[in-house]
Amino acid sequence: MNELTIMSQCFAQVRRVAKLSPMYRKKFAELPVDTMMTREQFESLPFTTKQDLRDAYPMGMQCVPDDEIVRVHSSSGTTGTPVIMPYSRQDLEDWAVMMERCFQFAGVTPSDRLQITPGFGLWTAGLGFQAGAERLGAMVIPTGAGNTDRQLQLMRDLQASVLIGTSSYALVIAEEVDKRKMKGDIHLKRGIFGSERWGDKIRERIYETLGIEFFDIYGLTEIYGPGIAIDCHEHAGMHYFSDYVYCEIIDPKSGKVLPAGEQGEIVITTFRKEAAPLIRYRTRDISRIIPGECSCGSPFPRLDRIVGRSDDMIKVKGTNIYPAQVEEILKQIDGFGSEYRIILENEDLRDRMVVQAEMREGADPEELAEKLVRGCKSGLGIRIVPQVMKNGELPRSEKKTQRVIDKRY
């Protein structure tokens, strides 16, 4: 689909939501959206935020009659009012098409057996993966979240060839396989992991233990769910399905649209969604659109690996810090493993930043602590308190790993 066609469909969706969506009728009330727009006019439209969706609770963004809604999904709501997203029958079909494409990009075939470990229910992940796998014709093992003993039993006995989940839970699986000496008993070939940013240390640990090829998959509840973008075998960025979604990259502070190649916040417009289309939705995820074509030959454009979120910045001693910066420092120090955690505390009314990091077996904890202090002083500009821990001491998660704990008052 060429850019002119994509923009034409975006403009048509803008006009549609301005008439049918209570949320957008209010948002676009004073804007001239009834006629054909220029690209510049489109880029001047106000962004849609998660707070807009919370304010529209439960379904104030709905664009179709009630009898055309066949399912709803929801965000966790852990940081406020949950976001409820309705789906039409066509929305679910479109989502399944994108999920099937993701599996094909990852080399999954109908002869594969897919163990789906994300949760089923209001969260989008489990059902989204299942729909795509069934459309492809592969066997689904819908284990859902938790119960690692059961997961490993079924993985072995049903000879699962593809593991699907968060990178955090993939690490749990890998460590348990290693601990129980099960590597020779399982048949995994591939992993498809998403829902959180994961760095090279975790990738190395999973590969060392399971020996599988794995793929980044991208999506979010507000935009269908997982499956709007995925790695290919070149592992040179995630192909996003530009015939369903339009992506922009903006400067998180100014909101200005950035050219291809520059890093910023991903903004998405769902120009084919029926029940709850979104116009210029701020995802808060930081990436860039990779210029040029991928050597795999796919016509779909690429997003680079997600490096963090524009809203996960923490301020310590007057310094702005992203967890990804700490992860990068740990990556440069030989002897650290994949797991780390940042704890923020008050000490004598001043900020105190503790960095807990697991070491590899045989490493010198005192030497690693000194290198970590120096690395953070150089890379972050502040002095941290190091806590070097043995492998396995930090908590593991079946969902997303909590990297920052703020105990400041």
UniProtKB/TrEMBL annotation:
AMP-dependent ligase C-terminal domain sequence ranges: 318-408
Record carries keyword Transmembrane helix: no
Enzyme Commission code(s) on record: 6.2.1.30
Alphabetized GO MF terms: nucleotide binding; phenylacetate-CoA ligase activity
Pathway field: Aromatic compound metabolism; phenylacetate degradation
A Pfam family reported for this protein in Swiss-Prot or TrEMBL: AMP-binding_C_2
Domain AMP-dependent synthetase/ligase: 58-269
Alphabetical UniProt keywords: Ligase, Nucleotide-binding, Phosphopantetheine, Phosphoprotein
Broadest EC class assigned to this enzyme: ligase
Keyword Nucleotide-binding: yes
GO biological process terms, semicolon-separated: phenylacetate catabolic process
Highest taxon of source: Bacteria
CDD domains found in the cross-reference section: PaaK
Family: Belongs to the phenylacetyl-CoA ligase family.
Subunit structure and binding partners: Monomer.
UniProt-recorded name of the protein: Phenylacetate-coenzyme A ligase
Taxonomy of the source species: Bacteria, Thermotogati, Synergistota, Synergistia, Synergistales
